[in-house]
């Protein structure tokens, strides 16, 4: 399997190179040169455990890693999870919830980043190389990425996050990690500022090559691939095609569901559930992709206007026509907006935007009805799913442990329900961070000073 860029300027890239490259060097995102049809395998995959299925799916996309090595990578990635089944599917009222937050940092990003950390380590050790990971986080990516690579000799990690705009616990999950290869940069700006700084630095190819920069943001193909597995796994637990409702920010999670469907897994519709930052909901309603101002909501991991994985969806929407993607993204880059001729009628994606009040309301209602405690991000999905009640069976993706957002959850439920011992233990521990202005040069200077000789 080889990979190419959504913008057409890069092709013939192996899986291992795609993972190390992160963003494609023409500014696009890496995607498989062609998608396999996995339907012939599905009958024999129905009885597999999560990790067995992960190995089976990965084998099709990472064919430059021998099966025995892949087995070791998957085993080590998921032995860090609190439950042996890795993800948990359960009934909640008349819907289903797929809990993806049983990893080390208690958010769904662990599913991908524990595996990505293993793959990085494996490839770098083979090549005798060192990688400097640069990433931006609106909260959960940072801690999950750090947990994936902390303490590794062949990796340094630099995580940018918006100062004062991630929760206290999310910040502690990053800044209390004492390993010397971990660098937390609190940026005086928004998450979009952080993401723009990272994108600008990656676009400076001489700098990228000189400092051997790698990406952990959801642009990294290995993250999408790891996320395909839970859609596949959940879809194989039902007798009829399953609909998924996905709380969405960067479109990374739901895009994996889209690919799972394209690969042949029995999936019906995908509901893209946004918070008040509704650029994606507006796009799916009208075909216009137009940047608005970022609003700060109960769901900080989704306070995003520019969804970095959206470009991969466009690529498939345009029938894998890279020239069309390039034109659309150039339009968007130049004008802050770009449009299709009308709403994208792909028959797969539905979308809706959930207000802050409806998010809190859903936490309270679901708890009152079924005793289930949902985090605010999960609640955006639960609220959205109620608007598509005719779509059955429905699986709502649960993206975070509620104790990561105790203020909102406890207020919505009316008493203290959101606690977790691993988070409680962070309070009062020594922490480290560096505050920097929202400025590309300041971040470049920081990276070049810290990079170990
Ligand atoms: C990252 C995150 C999301 C959004 O996922 P995307 O892949 O960016 O769409 C939703 N909920 C939580 C808790 C997250 O950490």
Describe the overall structure.
This protein has 19 helices and 15 strands. The chain has 453 residues and is α/β, with parallel strands linked by helices. The protein has a domain of 216 residues: Rossmann fold (3-Layer(aba) Sandwich), CATH 3.40.50. It has a six-stranded mixed sheet with strand order 3-4-14-9-10-13, sandwiched between helices. Strands 8-5-6-7-15 form a five-stranded parallel sheet, sandwiched between helices. It is globular. The two termini are 35 Å apart. The relative contact order is 0.14. The mean pLDDT is 95. Pyridoxal-5'-phosphate binds next to helix 11.
What is the global morphology?
Answer: globular
CATH class of the domain at 88-106 and 221-417: Alpha Beta
Task: Specify the CATH architecture of the domain at 88-106 and 221-417.
Answer: 3-Layer(aba) Sandwich
Question: Main β-sheet, in a few words?
Answer: 6 strands, mixed
How confident overall, as mean pLDDT? 95
Q: What structural category arises from helix and sheet content?
A: alpha/beta
Low-confidence stretches: none
Q: Can you give the helix content as a percent range?
A: 40-55%
Instruction: Count every beta strand, where a strand is a DSSP E run of 2 or more residues.
Output: 15
| Chemical compounds bound to the protein | pyridoxal-5'-phosphate
CATH names the topology of the domain at 88-106 and 221-417 as Rossmann fold
Global Rg:
20 Å
Strand residues, percent: 15-25%
Cα separation of the termini:
35 Å
In order across it, which strands form the biggest sheet?
A: 3-4-14-9-10-13
Number of helices: 19
